[in-house]
Design a protein that fits this description.
Elements lengths: L6 H4 L11 H5 L4 H9 L23 E4 L11 E4 L2 H8 L9 H15 L25 H12 L14 H11 L1
Antiparallel strand pairs: 1-2
Helix pairs in contact: 6-7
Length: 178
């Protein structure tokens, strides 16, 4: 049995489609996403659309990063991006809703290796197989909390909070929603 996993939980999969806010149900990919996705793979194509500078204008040639002493043996805690196309893509505006794919993949592997959550571990046998949760890269915790509020709450929805809570979320996200 996986720590933190309940056999009872596996029989009741959450139907997220019924939980989305009205705003979240109206969301769709912007038209620029389709244009960029369709034409950016053509060799020699010069994009005349706004917002995507040419890759030779980026200052970095590689990225290296890692975690300090994760405390788990045999965990690759380093992220290295050296391929020129991947380095250019890492510096470009990201068109992927979950975040830059190599970074998301590294973060997913890191969380799976360090914490072994049943929801991310693809090697678990049924009924402990993943139930659809994923890693998403955001601009920070405030942006992530704002996105969650907008996806799950409609204006006027009641929210139960502890007496001592993160005031920024209340002031910047919940109060403006009504």
């Amino acid at each position: 049995m996986v720590v933190g996993y309940s056999a009872q939980a596996s029989s009741s999969v959450v139907d997220w489609e019924q939980r989305w806010s009205r705003e979240a149900r109206r969301k769709q990919l912007p038209s620029l996403h389709g244009i960029v996705s369709k034409f950016s793979v053509i060799p020699g194509m010069i994009g005349m659309h706004g917002g995507l500078p040419p890759s030779d204008s980026f200052p970095f040639t590689s990225f290296n990063g890692g975690l300090t002493d994760v405390g788990v043996p045999d965990v690759d805690d380093m992220l290295e991006i050296c391929d020129p196309k991947t380095v250019a893509a890492a510096q470009q505006y990201n068109m992927q809703p979950k975040g830059h794919a190599p970074l998301v993949s590294w973060a997913r592997d890191m969380v799976t290796s360090l914490h072994k959550p049943a929801t991310l571990n693809p090697t678990l046998p049924p009924p402990a197989a993943p139930i659809g949760m994923e890693i998403v890269i955001t601009q920070g915790s405030s942006a992530a909390l704002d996105s969650l509020c907008r996806m799950l709450l409609n204006p006027g929805d009641a929210v139960l909070l502890e007496e001592y809570t993160y005031a920024h979320v209340v002031e910047a996200d919940l109060l403006p929603m009504g």
